[in-house]
Amino acid sequence: NAGVTQTPKFQVLKTGQSMTLQCAQDMNHNSMYWYRQDPGMGLRLIYYSASEGTTDKGEVPNGYNVSRLNKREFSLRLESAAPSQTSVYFCASRNPTGNTEAFFGQGTRLTVV
Amino acid sequence: SQQGEEDPQALSIQEGENATMNCSYKTSINNLQWYRQNSGRGLVHLILIRSNEREKHSGRLRVTLDTSKKSSSLLITASRAADTASYFCATFQAGTALIFGKGTTLSVSS
């Protein structure tokens, strides 16, 4: 049982390049999330998908787009990367029914130069 | 802005001592959760306390919740070097997402 899988684990981009971060979960969870983590800032919510077919902005959505491809997969796209998007990105999923915890992937460390 | 704020930002203790971390939040919640993050890794869930609960235990962990003060505390008893990590509180409101605080970095020396 893999849980939440993120790819790639590391990526270096040049300013202006685009890329998509992939996330897949095998726990049949309805809700999925993308966070970014910067030193001293904790985790900040970028986008979330409460259920298949829906997406909503979080605290820091500018410069990002998301796609909930199906129930398993939730991708995060940077259309034109900027140095300010250098961060560690985490995907998470949870069952939204009742009081339940979130399960996290191992993160993608992105550097934009 | 972030929902939760942990205090202190950093905590250094000796093995065997207790570690207490606090979390304050801003709005009404359905539950509050604590997570742990080892350096360079993803977050792992530790414990969840519902809004109608005041205290919860799990092994060496004790969590309290005071909804009137919008605050929670995490107590780790008899700390071990392996407890060295960052600890985050996260709040959840129905219909939204988990919102995290900035975390407390705990260092336990042997």
Mean pLDDT of chain B: 92
Q: How many strands appear in the DSSP assignment of chain B?
A: 11
- From the alpha carbons, calculate the radius of gyration of chain A and give it in angstroms: 13 Å
- Give the end-to-end Cα distance of chain A, rounded to a whole number of Å: 36 Å
Summarize the structure.
The complex is a heterodimer of chains A (113) and B (110). Chain A has 113 residues and is an all-beta fold. Helix content of chain A is 0%, strand content 51%.
What does this structure look like?
The complex is a heterodimer of chains A (113) and B (110). Helices cover 0% and strands 51% of the residues of chain A. Chain A is an all-beta fold and 113 residues long. In chain A, strands 2, 4, 5, 6, 9, 10 and 11 form a seven-stranded mixed β-sheet that branches. In chain A, strands 1-3-8-7 form a four-stranded antiparallel β-sheet, with no helix packed on it. The relative contact order of chain A is 0.33. By secondary structure, chain B is mainly β. Chain B has strands spanning 5-7, 10-14, 19-24, 31-37, 43-50, 55-58, 61-66, 71-76, 85-92, 99-100, 104-109. In chain B, strands 2, 4, 5, 9, 10 and 11 form a six-stranded mixed β-sheet that branches. In chain B, strands 1-3-8-7-6 form a five-stranded antiparallel β-sheet, with no helix packed on it. The mean pLDDT of chain B is 92. Chain A binds chain B through residues 4, 31, 33, 35, 40-45, 48, 50, 56, 58-59, 90, 92, 94, 99-107, and chain B through 1-2, 30-31, 33, 40-45, 48, 50, 88, 90, 92, 95, 97-103.
